[in-house]
């Protein structure tokens, strides 16, 4: 969660697993975990966060990954953060989540996580007839903490560090960093406050990283290392300005590591293929040889739900042709219930195009990001007219253009919007068409916005509003 997209590959823990392929054309879709494994939020109905007052749930008819696996007699387990609902749509045989545990314990206490993984494998072994399994371990690190448990620090980096009042996590050797040691991503303001904030997050990276090591050791101990597909990814960028809740690269680029004992061809290799979380369900169904059922959801009464992702397994055998694996999409409508800001984007080859549907509204700020030292510092500096150390102004961040087009070769920072550049008009048009096609294919209720209304009787079509947009 909120994973360390700013930490480079080749982290020591991963070097111990020989059979890994890292995807570098990595990408991902907000918001959050399970529903996106299947189809984008505008299709599954879970338009924002699930928990608390936000209370979003996906449609009752969604054929989720754990549901399909359960029907195929695969044992399912979840440890850590769940944040999806309703319950019956996401059934697990073994569940230790924030629904009935402390999220600090099941999501950040790596000793507790280790023991739960062990328990899952012990009960697996006890089964009369051993079934294949699917275990989802959802770390809460490296999420922010300042809004919910500030006593443990801005990232809960003190939780379990053995200091007075912080408790101890026996398996964790905290790694500490000074503000001058951190690498400030280009999209984060380079100030002493932001550096200290990043250093705190780095400490939780050490907890996450050591936790992954423990989970993999349990897998080995249980004797499953040579018949288990391991996938590591995250669901959004770091919770810093321009990061999480944005569809820029800084909000969506994620680690994606896939480790297969069955696909030896590219062990230790790197792929340039563009992949997304929408590929997880097709990959797992492929791994278990389960077909995807044909069914309909409310939003798409005429078209069956189709998976727009694809199995990653072929990419473990040989590098896919760049022309075939060079497009990924992203979709967000809300984060918290108050944060309505629908956006759609396409990343194809060198270009990223974003559609900010309600661009005349200020971009919304989430509660835990608001209280973060980095954002408070940015607000204070902006208010007092001090240098912010940031590559854009707060005004630019709040008020965006409707269309944003970036050439990632010359502008990896996504600082220069080329949507108005006449030389790129054909690129803009082609990307816009592709994005719209994907929206139609995935039954996006926002497909006609913001200047038309979708009428879906008989043949779905857009009726103009003449609202000047
Ligand atoms: C915790 O919740 C899950 C459902 O999410 C349920 O299967 C499990 O039995 C619950 N465990 C306890 C101890 O209540
Ligand atoms: C972490 O979990 C272990 C095992 O359940 C427990 O002994 C330890 O006290 C927990 N640490 C914290 C900080 O809660
Ligand atoms: C897995 O494969 C490795 C390398 O071939 C071997 O050393 C190890 O013993 C195997 N583990 C099991 C549980 O079979
Ligand atoms: C921002 O300003 C407020 C009010 O002056 C102050 O309390 C707070 O400490 C400042 N925060 C940062 C991060 O500078």
From TrEMBL:
A GO MF label? N-sulfoglucosamine sulfohydrolase activity
Q: Which InterPro entries match?
A: Alkaline_phosphatase_core_sf (IPR017850), Sulfatase_N (IPR000917)
Which BP terms does GO give this entry?
Answer: glycosaminoglycan catabolic process; heparan sulfate proteoglycan catabolic process
Q: Which cofactor does it need?
A: Ca(2+)
- Which species is this record about? Oncorhynchus kisutch
The gene designation is SGSH
Q: What is this protein called?
A: N-sulfoglucosamine sulfohydrolase (sulfamidase)
Q: Which PANTHER family match?
A: N-ACETYLGLUCOSAMINE-6-SULFATASE FAMILY MEMBER, N-SULPHOGLUCOSAMINE SULPHOHYDROLASE
User: What Pfam families does UniProt report for this protein, alphabetically?
Assistant: Sulfatase (PF00884)
Which family, according to the similarity comment? Answer: Belongs to the sulfatase family.
Pinpoint the Sulfatase N-terminal domain residues. Answer: 41-289
């Amino acid at each position: 969660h909120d994973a360390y997209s700013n930490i480079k590959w080749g982290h020591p823990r991963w070097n111990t697993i020989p059979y890994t392929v890292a995807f570098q054309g990595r990408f991902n879709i907000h918001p959050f975990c399970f529903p996106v494994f299947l189809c984008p939020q505008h299709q599954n109905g879970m338009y924002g966060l699930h928990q608390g007052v936000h209370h979003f749930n996906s449609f009752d008819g969604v054929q989720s990954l754990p549901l399909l696996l359960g029907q195929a007699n695969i044992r399912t387990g979840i440890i850590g953060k769940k944040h999806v609902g309703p319950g019956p749509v996401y059934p697990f045989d073994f569940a230790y989540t924030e629904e009935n545990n402390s999220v600090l314990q099941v999501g950040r206490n790596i000793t507790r996580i280790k023991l739960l993984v062990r328990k899952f494998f012990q009960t697996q072994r006890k089964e009369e007839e051993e079934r294949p399994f699917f275990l989802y371990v959802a770390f809460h690190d490296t999420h922010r903490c300042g809004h919910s448990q500030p006593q443990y620090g801005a990232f809960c980096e003190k939780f379990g560090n053995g200091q007075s009042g912080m408790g101890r996590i026996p398996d964790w050797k905290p790694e500490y960093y000074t503000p001058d040691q951190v690498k400030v991503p280009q999209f984060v303001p380079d100030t002493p406050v932001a550096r200290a904030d990043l250093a705190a997050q780095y400490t939780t990276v050490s907890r996450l990283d050591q936790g992954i090591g423990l989970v993999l050791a349990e897998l080995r101990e249980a004797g499953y290392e040579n018949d288990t597909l391991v996938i590591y990814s995250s669901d959004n960028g770091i919770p810093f300005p321009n990061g999480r809740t944005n569809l820029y690269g800084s909000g969506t680029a994620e680690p994606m590591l896939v480790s297969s004992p069955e696909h030896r061809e590219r062990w230790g290799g790197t792929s340039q293929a563009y992949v997304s979380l929408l590929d997880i369900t097709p990959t797992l169904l492929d791994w278990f040889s389960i077909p995807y059922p044909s069914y309909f959801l409310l939003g798409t009464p005429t078209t069956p739900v189709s998976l727009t992702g694809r199995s990653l397994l072929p990419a473990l055998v040989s590098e896919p042709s760049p022309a075939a694996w060079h497009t990924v999409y992203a979709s967000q409508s809300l984060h918290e219930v108050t944060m309505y800001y629908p956006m759609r984007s396409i990343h194809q080859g060198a270009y990223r195009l974003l559609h900010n549907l309600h661009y005349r509204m200020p971009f919304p700020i989430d509660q835990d990001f608001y209280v973060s030292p980095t954002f408070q510092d940015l607000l204070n500096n902006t208010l007092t007219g001090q240098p912010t150390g940031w590559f854009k102004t707060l005004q630019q961040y709040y008020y965006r253009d409707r269309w944003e087009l970036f050439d990632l070769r010359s502008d990896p920072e996504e600082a220069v919007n080329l949507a108005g550049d006449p030389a790129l008009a054909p690129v803009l048009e082609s990307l816009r068409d592709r994005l719209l096609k994907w929206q139609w294919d995935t039954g996006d209720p926002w497909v006609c916005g913001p200047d038309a209304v979708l009428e879906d009787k008989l043949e779905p079509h857009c009726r103009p509003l003449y609202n000047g947009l």
